Amino acid sequence: MQASDRFNINSQLEHLQAKYVGTGHADLTRFEWAVNIQRDSYASYIGHYPMLAYFSIAENESIGRERYEFMQKMLLPCGLPPERDE
């Protein structure tokens, strides 16, 4: 692998990280990463009707109620962020 190939791969990765929020970056904390994963999961559950129907049957709730609950969970999927040491 040449230096130019390595630079090209790194520039492509930086481009993806700038374009898509969930791909992360070097300064991403563990908490931020977990929040991205949870939000992506909830958005997928809401966006895929069969999955939403599965959850509603499993929890014996209406589909609208499950959609509402998932949207509420997207606000703080992992609880409050930890305190930062400055």
Automatic annotation (TrEMBL):
Name of this chain's protein: Splicing factor subunit
GO (cellular component) term, any one: precatalytic spliceosome
PANTHER family: SPLICING FACTOR 3B SUBUNIT 5, SPLICING FACTOR SUBUNIT
Family: Belongs to the SF3B5 family.
GO aspect biological process, one term: mRNA splicing, via spliceosome
Pfam families: SF3b10 (PF07189)
Domain of life: Eukaryota
InterPro entries: SF3b5/RDS3-10 (IPR009846), Splicing_factor_3B_subunit_5 (IPR017089)
